[in-house]
Fold this sequence. Notes:
- The complex is a heterodimer of chains A (about 325) and B (about 280).
- Chain A is mainly alpha-helical.
- Chain A has a single domain (about 10-315), classed as ABC transporter involved in vitamin B12 uptake, BtuC, CATH 1.10.3470.
- Chain A contains 14 helices and 4 strands.
- In chain A, the strands form 2 sheets. In chain A, strands 1-4 form a two-stranded antiparallel ribbon. Chain A has a two-stranded antiparallel ribbon with strand order 2-3.
- In chain A, helix 3 (about 30-55) runs parallel beside helix 7 (about 160-185) and helix 3 runs antiparallel to helix 12 (about 265-280).
- The longest helix of chain A has 27 residues, at about 30-55.
- Chain A is globular, with a radius of gyration of 20 Å.
- Chain B has about 280 residues and is an all-alpha fold.
- Chain B has 11 helices and 2 strands.
- A two-stranded antiparallel ribbon of chain B has the order 1-2.
- Chain B starts with a helix and ends in an 8-residue tail after the last helix.
- The relative contact order of chain B is 0.21.
- The model of chain B has no long low-confidence stretch (mean pLDDT about 90).
- The interface between A and B is large, with 43 and 42 residues.
Amino acid sequence: MTFRHLANPLALLLAALAYFVPALxxxxxxxxxxxxxIAILAVMSYGADLILSYLGEVxxxxxxxxxxGGYAAALLSVNAGWSGLPTAAAAVVVAMVLAxxxxxxxxxxxxxxxxxxxxxxxxxxxxxxxxxxxLGGSDGIVGIPPLTLAIGSWSVSANxxxxxxxIAWVVLMGTLLFIHRFRHSxxxxxxxxxxxxxxxxxxxxxxxxxxxxxxxxxxxxxxxLAGWLYAYQRAYVGPxxxxxxxxxxxxxxxxxxxxxxxxGPLIGTALIIVQQTFFSIGGDGDKIVLGSVLAAxxxxxxxxxxxxxxxxxxRPGAPTR
Amino acid sequence: xxxxxxxxxxxxxxxxxxxxxxGWTVLLGAARLVNFAHGQLYMLGAFVAWAVMTKxxxxxxxxxPIAVVALGxxxxxxxxxxxxxxxxxxxxxxxxxxxxxxxxxQGGASRLFGGDPERFVSPLQSAEIRIGExxxxxxxxxxxxxxxxxxxxxxxVLNRTRVGAIVRSVAEDPKLAQLFGINAxxxxxxxxxxxxxxVALGAGLVAPRSPILTSMGFDEVILTFVVxxxxxxxxxxxxxIAGFGLGLFTALFGALVSSxxxxxxxxxxxxxxxxxxPRGLAAR
Lengths: 321, 284
């Protein structure tokens, strides 16, 4: 009996339990709303997590893919009357095309130049969304119909957070499975090797640029699918999807528990949204809290709360392992 | 359209860009540190000067130096907090930390100063000079002259004094510099304080052109970044030239093509540049 054999039933049990969290939390509209939001924003964070944890770079441009998913859903459902699955496919395609363009443009950049170019790209994308009437300009796009998924004659329509939750749960579980598979894939292990020891990676015949581009393109559709769902949850998209809030939230969610942990971004997002939903101290106050948590974690326990736990355990006088 | 007028606008804009960027150039050159809170520091500089003027009745020419000193002190605090990762040169963490700081400033300023646009007025802004068809303000002259003086002084300090030699040696190799008894931590603090103070001066001179908002600062970061990369990372002379170049480009682009997309256009110039000459203008 190895841990690997145990892991799957345990993971399935946890996933099934996760489905009943909003019901266990009272089943109120607020509980369903918070859980759906957590699922959506966690999926968004997993997109950036792929870059930060496995490439070791800081992408500040993932709000582009997040917004691209939202805009794809909004434009196609409002103007062309498409239902949920085709708009999801469109969101994925649009995000991947954008990721290829941005990935190729940043292929030769590293560290802060990479971060700055992705950041600048996000600011420019916001400027375009804000000024281009095709994308609704500063007003955005209103009147997105309820999410309807149809396969053959079967179809389900989600109106309100309690009906949206099962879909958000499926997207979240699918993302977790994808990240889990990615970590053990050739691309995932190559990415880690490129980050840890680029010379060794090159010596083993790994093309660092191909790996970087591959991870970048793989990460974009994740954030885009989150944006796609967010558009249906709010029935509105606008240039506010480019706000720093989402960027800071992604990064905080990733670092708060610890990088390179499968459940890290999910737990991180849950902590942040629970604070903002149930213990909010006003919009500006929440900004201060979120920014402070992000800075404090990195300055005090750079490896996240998991690192703090190790520090506490190894303290003299603490119970021995 | 009057070409001469646009050239003058371009020079004025460009001197503003160079002035806002200079702190970053030095910080990046000497400490390899990227400060994503730069735009929010610009915002804070403008709001501190504005608050001192409106709440305490101090005049503009005293309010700007007060803002410069206040931001310099803030720089000491920030760099003190970041000292450990700075000494370890943990650049990934530092980038994210400064982003967090920027977010705190944005929330804090909005709480402190309110979310409405405010008018940060310089008496020189309304003092116009007209020569035939062309016009500009004394504020423009002040910005241009102030920028040239600051760049001149900075160049002299960095290249002709002992302090400059110490900063350059830390930039070159911090570990080796420490072996020779140079206190690298102190240099990092000094450079960071300079960045904060310089961006406050930039805000004091440039921000009166338009209403100020606590949510501003993003465009400033992009333009600063373009100036720093085009000028060659860490090059003082390069960033001055790049600032003027970018100013002329935005003035002409805004007049000839579209003023809504100037930041986007500047960014595409940068992308083209990164692909063609990744190391900037100063690279040989």
